[in-house]
Design a protein that fits this description.
Elements lengths: L2 E3 L12 E3 L4 H13 L2 H17 L2 H14 L12 H19 L3 E4 L7 E4 L2
Parallel strand pairs: 1-2
Antiparallel strand pairs: 3-4
Length: 123
Amino acid sequence: MLLLSRFAGAAAELRAAVLTNPYHADGVARDLDRALRMGLPERQERHRELLAVVSRTTAATWAEDFLDSLFSYEMRDTKYEIRDTSSEEALHSHLVSRISYLKSGDARPVGGRGAVRRFRRGG
């Protein structure tokens, strides 16, 4: 059973987790007790739901969703309007190539603890 802070970014997607307020010690204790006493059928159902979310949401799917939102957004303020379509097309082409690269399975995270993650080919 997953006990997760309701303030974690993943809480929006991992709704089958037992969500708790980590700043409220009594509440965390109550939620932990609830999770530990949960019956097997409910735990199994929640596990299935969580596994389905985690299985379908990858860095590549997140990036695709982000790009879809980015490129479907219509800017209302002409001050920020992209006027040079070649720049917009170049950006789109670059981002799509990065997503394809991540989806290829040939990328691996590099960097130390607390470092910004970068991806590179190879081993």
